[in-house]
Amino acid sequence: MLRGKLKMVAGDTGKRAALKRLFGMAVLSTGLSACVTGSAPPPAPAVATPAPVAVPKTPKPVRIGLALGGGAARGFAHIGVIKALESQGIVPDIIVGTSAGSVVGAMYAAGNNGFTLQKMALEMDEATISDWSLPLFAKSSGVLKGDALQAYVNRMVGNVPIERLKKPFGAVATDLATGQPILFQRGNTGAAVRASSAVPAVFQPVKINDRQYVDGGLVSPVPVRFAREMGADLVIAVNISQAVEGQSSSGTIDILMQTVSIMGQSINQFELKQADIVIRPDLPNMKSSDFTSRNHAILAGEKAAMALMPELKHKIRQLLER
Fold first, then answer.
1. Is 292 helix (H, G, I), strand (E, B) or coil?
2. What kind and span of H or E run contains 313?
3. Predicted local distance difference test score (pLDDT) of residue 137
């Protein structure tokens, strides 16, 4: 009888174990089924993605080139143009000059502002840039040797070579053997300016590296294209050449200067079209040899530049917004 009870207990225990196993399998089956076919757990709350912020476009800097033309004493007008530009916060990045433009351009590229240039101009003695060839007209190809001009320019720029000036600078001269233009961007600043200013029959040709050079005005009276070649995005050209019509030339130097001006007229018409702004100081009665009217020329340059300032600022804005 005891054995029978034990069997029943054992049987009951086995049944319970069997029931537990069946219940566990059912629970597991239900859980798996829920994972496969049942409702998915609620999704995680979406994280709001901020809208992209529009970054303002940084305007590309505009490299302004200043192309200063030739014209001997009329070149003082370049100083007035520089003063006007600076008064409006417009400071050229690249300077290129021909003849008188190379003289002013070199001193400006050396770090002298418009007011300093004006002071230098008013204090300049014409004798400091004039060294007459002796004997006069005898076996020399020019009346002036040019040594004094070279020394004066080097003194004014602190004897710094072109490549070490504070602004990129180029002086345009003409290769006497080939008639081709040359842009000096390295070497002795005074020598390059002297070569650029060597008006035939007025100054002796300048020998540099076994080649002879004369006035750059023969091939590039206002060196706009060279300002472009040096990387200018916008070129301001300053044309100080004399209008050929109505000019009376009585002296030898005046006749020679007018001859150079006549030769450059057709070149100017082509080259000035490549400039963004052309400033023409009003100097109808000033001769190229008139160093006494330097203050008048400076004022004329300032006035001419201010008259075109709205147009110049508009063009600069256009380039900044491109």
1. helix
2. helix 309-320
3. 41
Distance, in Å, from the CA atom of 120 to the CA atom of 183, rounded to the nearest integer, reads 26
Residue type, 306: M
Contacts of residue 303, defined as CB under 8 A and 6 or more positions apart, other chains included, come to 80, 84, 281, 282
Q: Which of the residues are catalytic?
A: 99, 215
Instruction: Please tell me what DSSP assigns to residue 287.
Output: -
For residue 25, pLDDT over 90 is answered with no
Write down the pLDDT at residue 263: 72
In tens, the pLDDT along 131-149 reads: 654 443 444 455 678 899 9
Q: Quote the strand ranges of 260-306, DSSP E.
A: 277-279
For 198-216, give one letter per residue: b (16+ CB within 10 A) or e: bbbbbbbbbebeeebbbbb
> Helix, strand or coil for residue 103?
helix
In sequence order, the β-bridge partners of residue 172 are: 98, 183
Point out which residues pair with 203 in neighbouring strands. Answer: 144
253-262 residue pLDDT tens: 667 667 777 7
- One-letter amino acid identity for 228? R
DSSP single-letter state for residue 222: S
Per the structure block, which two tokens stand in for 276? 């963004």
pTM of structure: 0.78
Does residue 182 sit in helix, strand or coil? strand
Phi, psi for 312 (deg, rounded to 5): -65, -45
SS3 65: strand
